[in-house]
């Protein structure tokens, strides 16, 4: 893992791996959505729609993070919620925010929401694959501990996150970044739970949840490209994305070990959203397909 890729000389500004990967996913998503969307939507309106959707996605991702992590936040002024490092981003919040922004925009302009959703869907999957690599490099969204009692094959999959204080103590970025001084999230979580000592060099081995999520995003991206011209009904590619991601995200959550993401009846907020969205998308998919063939 490498939370800071480099530091801008002179101003000692750290460039974070997660921010770089998020930026790459946004740029890649822009060009990909433009490529697929120009076939059915006016280019000028499509550009505006992408900007609106992306902005609303970032707001939604931060807002859901604040909601789910509210009890764990420590701030003395509401404006601190806008500062990176005080809370993160939640993928589902981004999806919902982006969709809501696109819905409002297409309601006010003569554009097809279904066409835009289908055009943007491959970009969403690709973005998942890319940004989860950023999660791995930063150390967030880590997995549950793999204890010594686990099978040998399972222990070989484990990843240990370092104590940043010992690893980056001589790094300029470390000295100018308070979040780095707190240590890798998995490491300090295990310290807090008494699983490792505070002077240890690494966390316990954990499930590679970020890499599993990244691989899942790339697999979904490939499936969407294969299925893009297979659906005759507008919006069905997007609905397939919602069903697939809702189902797989619910399963991946079982190996996630990061705390503070909201738990209701022993299931995380993302699991509830995943299950409900998967069922809702399946119902809409089947009813609209039946209506189209009748």
Structure description:
By secondary structure, this protein is mainly alpha-helical. It has a domain at 4-144 and 207-226. Helices cover 60% and strands 4% of the residues. The chain has 12 helices and 4 strands. The protein has helices at 17-37, 43-68, 91-108, 113-138, 152-155, 164-167, 172-175, 178-181, 185-192, 209-227, 236-252, 269-293, and strands at 4-8, 13-16, 263-264, 267-268. The chain has a two-stranded antiparallel sheet. Strand 1 (4-8) and strand 2 form a beta hairpin. Helix 1 packs antiparallel against helix 4 (113-138), helix 4 (113-138) runs parallel beside helix 11 and helix 10 (209-227) packs antiparallel against helix 11. The longest helix is centred in the N-terminal third of the chain and has 26 residues, at 43-68. It starts with a strand and ends with a helix. The model has no long low-confidence stretch (mean pLDDT 86).
